[in-house]
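The pair is quoted verbatim as follows:
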Amino acid sequence: MEQGSRRTRFSAVPGGIGQEIYLNVSKEAWAAWLKHQTMLVNENRLNLADARARKYLATQMEKHFFGEGADAAVGYVPPTE
């Protein structure tokens, strides 16, 4: 986490990965992840009642913060101004 960045007020994810995110991820980075996660859910039409979809998102979250980066949202076209 960058100097001067604020962390989230609580651990948003349970377990060890949640603690790592709480200690090392700023509020701004968490907000960016939530936006990207929403795109992944929408573009891949994930059903969050499906354990495989939740596992996929957990893996992507870990890659986003601590790995090589999460998958791009396939088919996403940014809005034009």
The chain has three helices and no strands. The mean pLDDT is 86. The CA atoms of residues 36 and 73 lie 8 Å apart. The longest helix spans residues 27-43.
